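Input sequence (855 aa), recorded before submission:
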Amino acid sequence: MEIKWKYYLFFQIIFLYLFVNVDFAQSNHNSISGKVNYSNGIVLQEAQLELHGNNINKHTTTDKTGYFHFTDLPLGEYELDAHFEGFETAHTVVKLDSSLAQPILITLEIASVHQEVVVTADSNQISTETSENHDAIVVSQDTLNNLPIFDQDYVGTLSRFLDSGELGTSGVTLVVDGVEANSVGVSSSAIQEVKINSDPYSAEFSRPGRGRVEVTTKPGSLEYHGKFNFTFRDAILNARDPFARSRPPEQRRIYEGVLTGPVFHSKKTFFLFSLDRNEEDTQAVVFALTPSGSIQTNVATPLRNLLVAGAITHSFNTNNTASLRFSYQDRSQKNQGIGGTILPEAGVNSEFRENEIRLNYQAILSPKLVNQFVFLIGQYSNPTISLNSNPKIVVLDTFTGGGAQANLLRTEHHFELTEAISYSSGKHTIKTGINIPDWSYRGVENNINTGGTFYFSNIQDYLAHKAFSFTQQQGNGHLEFLEKVLGVFIQDNFRLKPNLMISAGLRYDWQNYFQDSNNIAPRLSFAYSPYGSNKTVIRGGVGIFYDRSGPRPIQDILLFNGNRLMAYVIPNPNFSNSINISKTSSSMPVSIVKLSPQINIPYTEQLSIGVERQLSKVTSVSVNFISSRGIDIFRSRDINAPLPPSYEVRPNAEFGQIRQIESTGHSQSKSLELSFRGQITRFFTGMMQYRLAKSSDNSGGITYFPPNTYDLSGEWSRSDFDRRHRFELLGAINANKWLNIGLSLSLSSGAPYTLTTGTDLFHTGLGNARPVGIPRNSLQGPGYADLDLRWSHDIFLNKTKKDKGMVITIGLDAFNVLNRVNFASFIGNINSPFFGQAVASQPPRRLQLMARFRF
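Predicted structure, token format:
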């Protein structure tokens, strides 16, 4: 019987762990542990600690509970420094002897407010901690405040450092304060730090480091502090979109801030309140060709968003802290989906309302044992309404008109839970726990495409009423179902030698509706300093990461089962008699959605090896090679497609399309990554990352259909996101108090797109056929380049007490400063009048004014 690679890796990790760790039960190594907080009990996550003495030089960070731990120490005297951005450094002398049993409590005070713009990770010191990899992107809010961040979207700005090949089926994995979440849930000012690719092989998370964004929100404060931002953008300051005939009258206003302080002057109870109001009056650009001629117009797409969040935190004592947080979001947008070849009549209006309550309890049970418990409940409602109810008209890659046929109501009641325990002893720090990232009772009112959609290859066929396909759904679109996702993990970080640390972990993931229950994911990583000085560290890892389907495929399987909601695909319909078609479609064979009997949950095998080098106290460089392989990737296939060679008759005449969701795809990617962080010159500090990569696969995702079900030879090709070269830079120039410039530069080579005939050669109703012998993604668009700048200046209202006084900051952002046209949405349809051209572009140059008040 064939043994899967993942099981072989699992047994190898267990063998290695036992081989190097046989003396665990007999070891008795000395350690220093403790907690870092602010003002009598407010824990500080990700605080940096440096330990020196007895020829020892170690670095670590506090965890989610503010707890830290140094292991494998000889007896003697040490100097311990604690750092946290925005706070004064605390210096502590620790005398380690056999009587030391209680953790050290370190309290930090707020630091002076500095004018300088500093762009750096929290620490540029190389470390042999397996979690302190220097190819991670770690940026605090104080740093982000001085960078050109479009609409203050910190997470979106840093997401460009993600690897699209490591994202799950549902997209980016967002982790907020150690727990997976659908959104950050607080305003931008309430964010303390954003990290990408931190501890990439951690068993605590389901996805690799380059596939997740970790956000740490601010703790409360026992002193009153606040920050309020106003951001303003107007079209008179913008360049014209290259696809627009005129510059539309756009404007955007953002009112955002955070306030923290004690509750009734309490020393143990404090609050946090954040508010974000977004008023966006932007316009979409339509660039299409209709029988009446070309359409090049602007369409208003107003958006309103309100996010209110608050938290109450109570410190029972130095070892026990609990917080209760709530959030409410109300977002509405009109004329959504319009732009490019989609006409104004085919837009939708949408709303989204969500409420969430989150309880977080942290406890240091003993100097060696720490517990964290998080529970979240929430609910949302998300209606989408088409602007009109007319049948939808799609002339492939030319224009889309009629109605959007997108009426849908989604509701959800959900809870999430995380219970994690950390235990430290001697060489070992063991963390284990259970997380339930999604346990949702979902509701759906699916009225999509009840009026039907006609598909045409080109304008000539449209004028001749020669549609190649008509699709429609009828019946009961109401559905309620329960989605369950569960994960358990255990991880041991153990230091074999002062210059060698190994992290071994094991994770198990499960979700309902998929009869695949053997999803065991072993992971192993190491960090080794060959010279003992920690100036050079060799780092590597190997692991398995499981995916999830997300709710949409489950919804389709339950709805389109042949009994509840009927879907019909009618080839070569009579367009001139659309009313009769709509009435008689129920006499046609029904289309259904099903899971393949052999379906498995997809997983990724990843390995990496790299070298990090400390160039100076504040500068480091790293080189990493990463190889990933995707196994059992999702894709869809019409297993009832018309048979070759004529492609006229379906094998099972009782059904139309039978969409079978399979896990038969695979992918492979390799990349070489060069990262630099620190001070390059006297006036410039920043972080840079260059990536040389190649990624190939044979699936475009869970909703992707190969054109020819019976010939998959042309599916293996470049991945949709494959860009051979990529360069990212975040930095700052600080020459004096008036010359504070933050900059962001993003460069990449072009992404691929697919050459198609624009015809339904295989009579599946999809119209995605390719010319004979042409693989998927055989064409490539041009490269991408974007330079953004921010100038800012601080005005201190109390010049004698800058560290305690009020500060006003004014700034000017310039996005796409060079006004480069970065084309998007390239057309590969040879029957389209736009073949080989783009029908949209990334935004042109835009200027943004900002004002900030903080105290």
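Checked by second reader. The first strand starts at residue 30 and ends at 38.
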